[in-house]
Specification:
Elements lengths: L2 H6 L14 H12 L11 E5 L2 H16 L9 H12 L10 E8 L5 H18 L3 E5 L1 H4 L4 H10 L5 E10 L24
Antiparallel strand pairs: 1-2, 2-4, 3-4
Amino acid sequence: MDARQAILTRRSTRRFLDKPIDDETLKEIIEAGRYAPSGGNSQSNRFFVIRDRKILDQLVEMVKDSFSKMEVYEGMYKSMATSITLSKSGNYVFHYNPPCLIVLANKKDYGNNLADVACALENMMVYANAKELGSCWINQLRWLNEDEKLLKLFYSFGMKEDERIYGALALGYPDSEDGLPERRQVERKGNEVIYI
C-alpha cells in the first residue's frame, strides 16, 4: 500500500479480535511513531506499550471510576460527555478492548507536547493501516492526565514526574467480516482549503 492510499483509507477501529500482534510488526509500528517530527527535534515522547490484559483491565476501571465522579454540563465536548455518561452507567471500556494500547507521554511544560504526540500517533495509525491492523486514537487518558491514581500507575511504569499523558492508541486486528480495517474512503465535508 503506498503512503497516499494508507492515509486516505485509514479509519478508526473500535472492535478488535483477542489476537496478539506479532513482535516484529509491533516494533515497526512503534518505530513509525518514533520517527515522527517533533518540535526542535526534541524527540521527547515516551511510549508505553501495554499488552498485559490485567493492566488494560485496571486502566478501564480507573478511567471509569474517575469519569463517573464528573458531571456533564451544557456545551461540553461530546466525547467527554459520553465518557462521563457511560462511566456512570458502569458500562464503559474507553479503549475498546484492543490487544495493545500504546500510551504516549511528553514533558508537561513543553509547548509542543500535544503536537509531538499527535504526529507520532498519526504515523502509527497510518502504518498500522498499511499493515492491515486497526487502530483508534484514544483521548480519555489525556483528559485525566492530572488524575493522581493514573499518575501513580504510570510513574510505576517509568513515566517521569515532569511528564503527562497526551494521547494513546488502541491497536490490533479488527473484528470485521474480512479481518481487515474499514477502508471505505469518506468524502471530506470540512477542513476547508483556501489557496492564497
